[in-house]
Amino acid sequence: MKAKGKRRAGSGGKAAAGKKKGKTPGKSEKKSGGKGRIVSNIILVLAVLVFCVSAFQFFRILSGYHEGRKEYDEVKALAVTEEGEGDGEKARFSVDFDTLKGINPDTVGWIRFDPEPAQISYPLVQTTDNSTYLNKTFSASENTVGAIFVNTYNNPDFNDRNTIIYGHRMNDNSMFHDLAKYEERSFWESNPYFYIYTPDGREITYHIYAAGQVTETSDTYLTEFADDAAYQAFLDYTKQASAYDTGVEVTMADTVVTLSTCTKASDEHRMVVVGVKEKEEK
User: Fold this and answer.
1) So where's the catalytic machinery, residue-wise (predicted)?
2) Angle at CA 179, nearest 5°, toward 177 and 180?
3) Residue 24: which residues within 8 A CB-CB, separation 6 or more?
4) Does 207 qualify as catalytic in the annotation?
């Protein structure tokens, strides 16, 4: 306001000077507008770059899911024979372990659920650590789908008191994704069993007696027990940690298998399904 007042009240010479000064704001606005356009263009370029990177990452994830599912379908087609039920006989399921070991010598078994979640039907592997198969498939492809693997500290014959099996919870419903359904008792009531097949010809039936979320450091992951009392304490703990009481009996004479996967709750939580060996056939 003062600048404008001076321009109005001054002499001719001063008025001219005032007129000259009057052009300065226009130039500043022009420069300011130019800078604004530059900033806007930079923001636009950054937004496009972020979109492109996000789209690429999304494509990689979808591609990984597709490749992983395709691979496991091919492995199943090569090594598994299923014959439907008929004439009062249960469906027969057999695995060609020679073929599987030819693909991957780390093969120690096959796990499946019946009737649901039917998509959980995968080869089991075991190696000298618990990290290799987090990002490596059964056929040794680098893929975040990983593989279903047995805890490295367990014996590969499933005769330990507690054998732990790990698998990812993939967003395309593959691998161990559907273990989360066992948080609902109604799902367990319809699907209370899972099966493990071994290279020496055994078919082991497991009756699920506990299911629920635990922390990654919980006693659920114990594999060694000093004595029977310690093992009984472990069994009691797994029952207490279950989301519901199944009523399935478990004793110190039994062996169990714990299936473990991640959850949406947090990085520290895991979804576990624990089954007791009910029957073994050969």
Assistant:
1) 168 (proton donor/acceptor), 262 (acyl-thioester intermediate)
2) 85
3) none
4) no
